[in-house]
Write a structure and sequence with these properties.
There is one protein chain. The protein is an all-alpha fold. It contains five helices and no strands. The protein starts with a helix and ends with a helix.
Length: 147
């Protein structure tokens, strides 16, 4: 059972978190170009927003499988598990509460052929950078298992 959960956990992380992270990171550039009237970039920004929202929401299953895996493996006493769970939670909140709604506002402006708000674009760049770095931290915790 442990091996099945581990495979599911890794596969879900790769297949769900990977695309959400890429889409969130690629969105600001496409949205800025869309705001300048590039209709191809507007289409790309729409798709990237949908991927960020959809895969980001679906990626919550990675945490659920991780909790089941920790339970199955008796890892609850390991500090790295708790730190990884906290970082996972914060990254998910960052994506779903900050990044996706900001993308929606920026996309709305771009669809009206309005210039993308520079502050919103900067916020997206910084928050998507933090979001991406959170997954590097979680990955390091999973591999190194400190403590």
């Amino acid at each position: 059972m442990r091996n099945a959960l581990l495979i599911a956990h890794i596969a879900a992380a790769v297949l769900l978190i990977g695309p959400a992270t890429f889409a969130a990171s690629a969105f600001p550039r496409q949205a800025a170009a869309a705001g300048d009237g590039d209709t191809t970039a507007l289409g790309a920004a729409r798709v990237l927003h949908r991927v960020s929202r959809g895969y980001g929401t679906a990626s919550l299953v990675v945490g659920a499988i991780g909790v089941a895996l920790a339970q199955q493996s008796s890892w609850w006493s390991e500090p790295w598990v708790w730190v990884a769970l906290v970082v996972f939670t914060l990254a998910s909140i960052l994506l779903l509460v900050v990044i996706v709604p900001t993308q929606a506002r920026v996309l709305h402006d771009a669809e009206r052929s309005a210039q993308v708000d520079a502050a919103a674009k900067a916020r997206l760049h910084s928050t998507t950078g933090l979001y991406s770095m959170a997954w590097v931290v979680v990955l390091a915790l999973m591999v190194i298992k400190p403590g």
